[in-house]
Amino acid sequence: MKFMIVGLKNNYHIERVREEAARYGDEVVGVLSTQLIVRTDPSKGISFRIRGLKDELASFDLIYLWTTPLKRKWDWILFLKYMYKNYGTAIIYEKYIDKDYQMLISPAWDYYREYKHNLPFPRSAVFFSKKSAKKALKYVGTPAILKVNAPGMARQGKGVFFVKELEELVRIVENYEEIASRFVLREYIPNEGDVRVFIVGYKAIGAMHRIPKTGDFRSNISQGGSAEPFDLAKNPSVRKIAEKAAKVVRAEIAGVDIMLNKYTHKPYILEINHGPQFKGLETLTGVNAASAIVEYLRKRAKEGKKKGILGPLWVLF
């Protein structure tokens, strides 16, 4: 089989997936989101090319949109719909080709669906300017956690701030207002780190407890935090919530971040990451995440071909 992975080209994660895929004789091709070219012709319609890719697009059994910036995602989703409709290519995430699915384009949609499915998450406010900061903070309360959705700040805790007062919040928002698509303010949950649950095929395959370094509230390992294995067998409620959260937002492969209140031990969903890194999980726990991913890609590729070329997208093209 042949898989295209979008967003990864030469790093640990795609090399591990390639390594495991090779055991089956499968091929994995990594492309960056910038390589997509959309071609339109008034008489021939729309077509696509991947810059630097000599392979025929029809040769791919599955395309996995691992990660891509939001500003490019809609063009890639159009490409995924095209590939599914014309070649029967299996797509991950499958929701991207479902015309009846309400696309989750904002954390607000995540919160709405989590609420509708009785999933616990911190009280939060999504806002867009410093003029709204005061009301957002009044609703959420202090201290609070601010997440800035802006280019270059979506990973490794770079866009996350601990806020104690209004002046501090306004100052941060003012610094990023011109480049941020939105701000998410969340109530602070007393904690001793968070738990990253790795999901493949809507099933938890392993987890780790991430612990902030002294003096920092962020538990990201990239920010100096540490980690230890987390036993899901002894914490079935965490497994259940993580798996349910992935199903609610239809994230077939995901990293679900869950925080446990240090006093009540109540779990809260923090984030559902659609492009999770798994080097830490493999190194720390011995879980073969790459193998689990490849097995799932193979399963989905076979299912995709069975559905036939003309799926639910005929109305779109």
Topology:
Layout: E1 2-6, H1 12-22, E2 27-31, E3 36-41, E4 45-50, E5 62-65, H2 70-87, E6 90-92, H3 107-116, E7 124-127, H4 133-140, E8 144-149, E9 160-163, H5 166-176, E10 182-187, E11 194-200, E12 203-211, E13 226-229, H6 236-248, E14 253-260, E15 267-273, H7 279-285, H8 289-306
Parallel strand pairs: 1-2, 1-5, 5-6
Antiparallel strand pairs: 3-4, 7-10, 8-9, 8-10, 11-12, 11-14, 12-13, 14-15
Helix pairs in contact: 1-8
Helix content: 25-40%
Estimate what percentage of residues fall within beta strands. 25-35%
Rg, Å, rounded: 20 Å
Indicate how many domains the architecture comprises: 3
Could you please say which CATH topology of the largest domain applies here? Rossmann fold
**Chain-averaged pLDDT:** 89
Order of helices and strands: EHEEEEHEHEHEEHEEEEHEEHH
Q: Largest sheet, described in full?
A: 5 strands, antiparallel
Question: Which runs of at least 5 residues are low in confidence (pLDDT < 50)?
Answer: 308-317
Going by CATH, the architecture of the largest domain would be 3-Layer(aba) Sandwich
Q: Based on the structure, what is the oligomeric state of the protein chains?
A: single chain
Figure out the total of helices.
Answer: 8
Text of the CATH class of the largest domain: Alpha Beta
Structural class determined from secondary elements: alpha+beta
First and last CA, distance: 27 Å
Shape: globular
Quantity of strands, as a count: 15
Strand order of the largest sheet: 13-12-11-14-15
